[in-house]
Amino acid sequence: MKKIPTLLLLILAAIHAMGQSISIIDTYEETTPLDVKKISERGHEHNNLKTFLGYRDYLSYELLSYKSTNEIKYRLDVGEILFWDEVSSIWSAALQEEFVYNSDGIIISKLILEWDDNTNQWETTWKTTYTYDASNKLIVELESNWDDGAEQWVPVEKYENNYDASGLLILTTDYEWDEVNTQWMKELKSEYSYNTSGDLSIRQSFEWDGTGSQWVNERRNEYTYDDGKLILLKEYVWNPGANQFIENWKHEFNYNISGQLTLEFDHEWDAGSSQWVPILKEEYIYDSNGNLERNLSYEWEQGSNQWLTAGKTEHTYDNAYEFSQLILPYPLDEIVNLFHHMLLDIKAYGWDEASSNWINYFMFEFSYSEQNIGSVGEMADEQIRIYPNPAKTELNIYAAGFNIEEVILYTLTGQKIMKVRPVDGIVDISHLQAGMYIVELTIENTRIRQKLLVQR
């Protein structure tokens, strides 16, 4: 058993295989107890969700803290998946994700509900609770399943995170609940290493061998960057017979001049021919407002040696609300690209070769509400300023009476490209390419983020 990913991540994985058989996506090899109905099996066939999203997972504990000066933000409360009913030609409710936040806009729990066609109501099936340290780092994630018979929550999985002195995630340990002995049993652990820029370079995973009472190698991910952008993820799996890691999967990324992800390529290692075989391709298209308007999915056909259209998603936005005004439960790297403005829905389509038409597949709808975010100590609006914006060579940061612990810049794809302590309130950005970035300040153990446009 491995953790149930957020439904949005299921959407992101499912678009890789619109035309494939339907099953459940989880994060490794085993299915979850939750019937996710028509989610694509493609992730499961290729070491599942973390193969597709593993290049992002090292930021999955970098949850957003919105504690800043008093202001109204717009909180994502509910995400709902609907599937297209071909018989009645209507959208049919399937799954719902509900989020609960604390007063600082940090997610503290998540519920997954499944629509019951017999009772015509939502049935709670799964709960995740989050515990943080004083710096708002996620340290414990607890997942529970609802037991209808006992009418209570039953623990299933627990994940504990450890960080180094600089706040980087260095160890994640997964535990599975043993109902017979009523105790947590070790299951998996992942160790993380970083390059000098603070980007993840290696993630090595181990599986607990209960018989030998020791950790054994399972898989290894290696990350390669160019100018702070992830361009290659290679996955290796452990071969006990050869007593070494062997190549299994690679994922390549291309970006436009603004730093937006435009293409992804998946390849699988063919041991027989000792070469990489193309599997999937994703193309991302943006509108004039910088929103991810749609993406197209393709599958490689070996016989004809060409890419065949498999599926697409289309996204609807409310451009009146920007990313900085939103409270979101998702990891920074997953959401910056999707939530450039307020995302209202994602519609997914599969390509029907017989009719040469797009057919409805599923839809993800988002619901928001207002939340008043508390202040950082006695900070007033005029006490924290980041200027100029747009900027060219220097960024000035003014925080009267407060210590700026660090400044981090991210691309819109969530890649960390700078981590500095400003000198006299000035950060040199002359080396950055033109485009949009996310600036993150850490002040009084609190993170404050806003967008920055760099011009040349």
Question: Could you explain how this protein is built, in words?
Answer:
This protein is mainly beta and 456 residues long. It folds into 2 domains: 7-373, Lipocalin (Beta Barrel); 381-454, Immunoglobulin-like (Sandwich), CATH 2.60.40. Helices cover 5% and strands 59% of the residues. The chain contains 4 helices and 28 strands. It has helices spanning 7-14, 42-45, 49-53, 332-335; strands at residues 22-23, 39-40, 71-85, 90-101, 107-116, 121-132, 138-147, 152-163, 169-178, 183-194, 200-209, 214-226, 229-239, 244-255, 261-270, 275-286, 292-301, 306-322, 326-327, 341-352, 357-373, 384-387, 394-399, 404-411, 416-420, 426-428, 435-443, 446-454. It has an 18-stranded antiparallel beta barrel. A 4-stranded antiparallel sheet has the order 25-24-27-28, with no helix packed on it. It has a 3-stranded antiparallel sheet with strand order 22-23-26, with no helix packed on it. The longest helix has 8 residues, at 7-14. The model is unreliable at 16-69 and 375-382 (pLDDT under 50).
Main sheet record: 18 strands, antiparallel, barrel
**What is the CATH C-level name of the largest domain?**
Mainly Beta
Estimated radius of gyration = 22 Å
- Label the CATH architecture of the largest domain: Beta Barrel
Straight-line distance between termini? 50 Å
Q: What is the residue-averaged pLDDT? A: 81
Which structural class is indicated by helix and strand composition?
A: mainly beta
- Here the CATH topology of the largest domain equals Lipocalin
Count of individual helical segments: 4
User: How many discrete domains?
Assistant: 2
Helix content: under 10%
Regions with little confidence, pLDDT below 50 for 5+ residues: 16-69, 375-382
Q: What percentage of the residues does DSSP assign to strands (E)? A: over 45%
What general outline do the C-alpha atoms trace? globular
**How many strands?**
28
